[in-house]
Design a protein that fits this description.
seven-stranded mixed sheet, 20 strands, 504 residues, alpha/beta
Length: 504
């Protein structure tokens, strides 16, 4: 690719950074524009009480040797720069149900996963094996997930691929409790009982059956590695200066203007923020056809989350090298995205590893799914100016989470030295995510064409990337970045480069 080609990327989150890293490695001049003080999006970290807290990306998959994201990082040449801590192979996920105080463990590896859950459900062992086999079959249908060259731009999928995830699970698992246990990762992908397609459930489950990891020392270190790579390849990272206006002419983008008055132009423009947020930046909204804008604006967003960040008193709470999930009742595992239920129905909690992690944890992050409607009354407020009622409400939410932790660890409150909270409003304002969505657009098996937003848009020199296209998360976003880049370079161009790098 000629080094005269250039791209301006709007948004410096995981999607913008991976897309920028790939484009810059292939010789393009890249400029990433980020409104916040630091790049990273969900990879950002912040410092409170002397501790570094991740804002997101608490669990990552595909980073074991040979994993798809591992292979992308090898192609980029950054494996020796990143700090990854692998979770335990037995019990990387531990799922606690408040209803009967039962705790279930998974395991890394296809056979080990079946054996681990069969310990609690011995009569379901054969069903578990068939269920896992079916998930792997679904995932094998996805060329991009397997970093496999594709010859079909419009692949035909199996019937199971597009069936509702809840129905897919019940097809193989007859035990009601186990049906809900294997759906424990719903909070990680915005799972809804009446919407989520089986392929989303299968991709996330298979990804973590292959081995889960976490970033040691903070996920911001990984974001900075990608940003450094872009700079080393001649690119520019602009921070603390968001895009204020996208200039268009006859349905082409001609440049962008920033809040601080800088002007940037390029051959390609890549939206790495929520598309509906991007629409508001266009100087002429009709540059994108109204039906296209209305279609994307009408797609429901995945639910958001409330986060409680805890600093522990020194040597008061032992570090655990697994991901822990709490759900109040088995029947609620699919209800996180439904209104009319008492909050919190469930949450994820982890002790993030320090670079020099010892026996005791220094902090904990608790993330509980939450609907936008719970903060809607404050949607027109800004950071730091939401009022006392909002602060009181956040304290009440924190207390509810602490009460749940006391169920699991009696005396938990005595370990807490300090706390910090974040709500769906925080996610909206810092990430530019509509309604504070954690996972972008909801995926609906009833209308997959609406759920899968193409990276190519109605503006010839505008592409999309990030969690709102295809899959979200630490696996889905880098894979979408490949699709975005191949819209410029050609089908399979990047996939072939990645595969070539494995033999070097």
């Amino acid at each position: 690719m000629s080094d005269k080609k250039s791209a301006v990327i709007i948004g410096g989150g995981l999607g913008g950074l991976f897309t920028g890293a790939i484009l810059s490695k292939e010789g393009m001049k890249v400029t990433v524009i980020e409104k916040n003080l630091t790049v990273g999006g969900g990879l950002q970290c912040f410092k409170r009480f002397g501790e570094v807290f991740d804002t997101g990306m608490h669990i990552i998959g595909g980073m074991r040797e040979g994993g798809n994201i591992y292979r992308i990082c090898k192609y980029l040449g950054i494996l020796d720069r990143i700090h990854v801590s692998h979770l335990e192979d037995y019990g990387p996920d531990r799922i606690f149900f408040g209803q009967d105080k039962e705790c279930y463990c998974t395991a890394t590896g296809r056979e080990a996963y079946v054996e681990a859950l069969a310990k609690s459900f011995p009569d379901q062992k054969e069903n578990l094996k068939n269920y896992v086999d079916a998930m792997f079959r679904i995932v094998d249908e996805l060329d991009i997930y397997n970093l496999r060259p594709s010859s079909n731009a419009f692949p035909v999928h199996s019937e199971e691929f597009t069936m509702p995830a809840r129905e897919f699970i019940a097809k193989y698992i007859s035990d009601y409790k186990l049906q809900n246990v294997v759906a424990f990762m719903n909070p990680l992908y915005g799972g809804r009982g009446n919407m989520t397609p089986a392929y989303v459930h299968a991709v996330i489950s298979v990804l973590y059956i292959g081995g889960a990891s976490r970033f040691a020392g903070g996920s911001h270190l990984f974001a900075e590695t990608l940003a450094d790579l872009i700079r080393e390849n001649g690119g520019e990272i602009v921070v603390n200066d968001g895009v204020a206006r996208v200039n268009t002419q006859e349905r082409f983008i001609t440049g962008v203007s920033t809040v601080k008055g800088r002007e940037f132009s390029a051959d390609y423009y890549i939206c790495a923020i929520h598309p509906c947020t991007f629409f508001g930046l266009l100087d002429n909204p009709s540059a994108l056809p109204k039906p296209y804008r209305n279609r994307l604006d009408s797609i429901p967003n995945a639910y958001s989350a409330f986060t409680l960040n805890i600093k522990f008193k020194k040597n008061s709470f032992k570090y655990f090298n697994w991901s822990a999930y709490y759900t109040d009742r088995y029947e609620n595992i699919w209800n996180f995205g439904e209104s009319g239920h008492n909050w919190p129905m469930g949450f994820l909690y982890i002790t993030p590893p320090d670079l020099d992690q010892g026996e005791y944890a220094s902090k904990m992050i608790i993330t509980a799914p939450m609907l936008w409607e719970q903060v809607k009354q404050w949607e027109n407020t800004t950071v730091g100016h939401r009022g006392k009622d909002y602060e009181d409400w956040k304290k009440e939410c924190a207390d509810k989470l602490l009460d749940k932790m006391e169920e699991i660890y009696p005396g938990f409150r005595d370990c807490v030295e300090d706390m910090n909270t974040a709500s769906p409003l925080t996610i909206r304002d810092y990430y530019g995510a509509k309604e504070g969505t954690m996972c972008g657009f909801s995926k609906d098996y009833n209308n997959l064409a609406l759920s899968q937003v193409p990276v190519i848009t109605k503006i010839p020199n505008l592409l999309l990337t990030g969690q709102n296209c295809n899959l979200h998360g630490f696996c889905g976003v880098p894979l979408t970045a490949i699709s975005t880049c191949e819209a410029i370079f050609g089908l399979n161009y990047i996939i072939n480069k990645i595969n070539e790098a494995q033999n070097v």
